[in-house]
Amino acid sequence: MEKEIISSRQFMIITLLASIGTAILISPASVASEAKQDAWIAAIISVVLSLLLIKLFITVGKRTPTLTFVEANEKILGRFFGKITSIGFIFLSLLSAGELLYFIGIFMKTEVLPETPTMAFAFLFSIIIIYAAFLGIEVFARSAEILFPFFILIFILFVVCISPSVQMENLQPIMEAPAKSLFFSMIRLMSIFSFPLVILLMIFPSTVNVHKSAQKGFYIGTILGGIVLIAIITLAILVLGPANTASRTFPSYSLAQRISIGNFLQRIEVIMAAMWLISIYIKTFMFFYAGVIGIAQICKIKNHRPLIFPFGMIILGLSQIIHPSIIHSDIYNRETWPIFSFIFAILLPLVLLLVAKIRKINGNQGNNTKSNCSTQNESGSNNGNASQNESSSNNNNSTQSDGNSNAGNTTQSASSSNNDNSTQSDGNSNAGNASQNESNSNNDNSTQSDGNSNDRNTTQNESSNNNEDSIQSGSSSNSENPSQSVSSSDTGNTPNSDKNKN
Asked: Where is the composition biased (Low complexity) (predicted)?
């Protein structure tokens, strides 16, 4: 199956929207219940600490830049322990995808269409997730690019419309919350905001085209998502007050219901619902995609698409049984989820880094060495032992070698000289022992050879000279020892021959 690649800009957008997810809807109540009017302070500290967590994720990704998180577990921890941790990660991903479908159903039934069962909303939304998974990560990333401007536009409209209802006295007194309450509110917010970003290691950096830009995008997406979250929490405290915010199930939606401009622009809380649906779509897909891809990689299945529909039905069933009530969901997100997410978002990456350092597993391949004898060796290889040598000399007989290989033991050499007798050879090979030689000279007796071969022993030679006695020959072969020669001369006795042989 052909590998799918996304751009660093698309990865940044996915990071931004995935970090918001359900946090934009339920986090204000969770934070305000502990930190009260200081919830905005807890939100700012949580976003800053989340950048350290992103640094951890990036460091883990750089250890195995071509592997997903599931594959990295198996490579670093070994086949047995790697599969155990990967199974736990996949289980948590699918469980979270089912819980997000539950949130969609319960929110739409509670706030928008109370007469419609939650199963109907979860089923319709699961169709979107399954279809997006069938199309692949590239199509999903493009859809995120399309939805991103709408999200930003709705957010700006929401902030502008709710600003007239702000009451600054709701933030007073400042810094009254005890340190313990502030700490727990920070942990709960990070468990919803930044801990779930560990699922992005399933596409970072293995699926992103430019790794350096993707690292910056990881930070930028997290910061922008944090700014959105801080704004929502602060506005909820300013408009609703800390007590009212803590008592609401979906305080940000209640906040949007307070919008009233000129007594004619009212009841536009659907814009808040649209913004939340965009972000939860991104987050639900990433959990589901991480689970399906992880199962396919553990079971060594090259094509993951046959697994999409069965597991789509599984998360649909989970959405109906995972929480018997909204109270159970609230307790789970306050007490149980932070522990589960801490294990896979902080503890497991730290263990992977420690073991990778002990086993000396890193993303840098090859050794770069330089010596004082005008010799430079470079090796860059994906398979086997490939070497590249470069040397330069000013003596009569100088040789420079340059090699690039993707397989086996292949050597490429090139030499350059300014003296009488010089030879330059340049070789490029993809198979056994193929060579390519090129030489260039300005003296009387010069020979230039150019060879390109994909077989074991195939050589092509071409030479040109402007002096009296010159011979030019070119040979091309597709089999063992066929030859083709062409020679031309401007002097009296110069042979010219042309042969083609198959």
From this structure: 376-489
